[in-house]
Write a structure and sequence with these properties.
There is one protein chain. The relative contact order is 0.18. Strand 3, helix 2 (66-80) and strand 4 (87-93) form a beta-alpha-beta unit. The strands form 2 sheets. The chain has a 6-stranded parallel beta sheet, sandwiched between helices. Strands 7-6-8 form a 3-stranded mixed beta sheet. The chain contains 5 helices and 9 strands; from the N terminus they run E-H-E-E-H-E-H-E-E-E-E-H-E-H. The radius of gyration is 16 Å and the shape is globular. The chain has helices at 18-29, 66-80, 104-124, 162-173, 191-197, and strands at residues 9-13, 33-34, 50-54, 87-93, 129-135, 138-139, 143-145, 160-161, 184-187. Helix 1 (18-29) crosses helix 4 (162-173). It is of the alpha/beta class.
Length: 199
């Protein structure tokens, strides 16, 4: 997917992983410029145009707690608002929208991040658009998102590829996308539909 970011600045909060690295590389290739995250930015410095908030994508992954991620995103939204523009994209697990029985705590943490994302979308629209990409089982050289058990309930019948996941991130960052906010786009091969159907 190609978009024209025309020099827009992009910052990252949260841990890196292969999906995050691929998303940053794609944003850079489409004209974006990577800058320091919200926490590392000196006072008075302009906020980024786009903030990616990286959340745990695999059960058992240790990362910051949801309130910290929410606080970072809210701080960015507050800084973006006077400039009349901004995008915040949460990279979360598809379990945010459909809990996984074998990973209750992980599902609950992602669901709370999803609720926080929607709250930010309501509070800071229309100037700041806030969305999420909910990843199911995505593989690179190894499983980078989700759990292999998801594949038994994925209608597409395979794990996603990193480039397929990145395309959804680019959609939310595209300057031509001006009307989508408060949404989670599930990139999960239909897992959220298939999971409910099998139980």
């Amino acid at each position: 997917m190609e978009i024209d970011l025309a020099g827009a600045t992009i910052a990252l909060e949260g841990p890196g992983n292969p999906l995050v690295e691929a998303a940053l590389a794609a944003l850079r290739a489409n004209g974006g410029r990577i800058v320091e995250g919200v926490r590392a930015r000196p006072a008075g410095m302009l906020p980024p145009d786009i903030l990616l908030v990286s959340c745990p994508l695999r059960p058992g992954t240790t990362a910051e707690d949801p309130p910290t991620l929410y606080a970072d995103a809210r701080k960015a939204a507050v800084a973006m608002t006077p400039h009349g523009r901004g995008r915040i994209v949460f990279l979360i697990s598809a379990t945010a929208g459909m809990p996984m029985r074998r990973h209750p705590r992980f599902s609950m943490e992602n669901a709370s991040i999803l609720a926080g994302m929607r709250t930010l979308a309501m509070e800071f629209g229309p100037k700041v658009l806030v969305n999420a990409v909910g990843f199911g089982a995505v593989e690179g050289e190894t499983m980078v998102s989700g759990d292999k058990a998801m594949l038994s309930h994925t209608p597409v019948g395979r794990a996603g590829r990193i480039e397929e996941a990145v395309a959804a991130v680019l959609f939310f960052c595209d300057p031509l996308n001006t009307y989508t906010t408060g949404q989670m786009l599930g990139v999960d091969g239909g897992w959220t539909a298939g999971y409910g159907r099998n139980f």
